[in-house]
Specification:
single chain, about 70 residues, mainly alpha, 1 helix
Length: about 70
């Protein structure tokens, strides 16, 4: 019984180690990526909307909104 408990504790320690190192690091990378995409979108949103509105004007569709 004690041997089994020791194996379970070892496995739990391994799981916690992986969570603390891999998951946290990957979450930080994802947060950085999301910030990058949002910043890029803010810079591209208005010119893209302008182009879409001009194209839609010439083909006769309604105004295009990126919101």
């Amino acid at each position: 019984m004690e041997e089994r408990l020791a194996r379970i504790e070892n496995k739990l320690d391994l799981i916690l180690e992986k969570l603390e190192t891999n998951v946290e690091a990957n979450c930080e990378k994802m947060a950085d990526h999301i910030t990058f995409v949002e910043t890029l979108y803010e810079h591209v949103k208005n010119p893209l909307g302008f182009i879409c509105n001009k194209v839609n004007y010439y083909i006769g569709n309604e105004q295009y909104s990126l919101e």
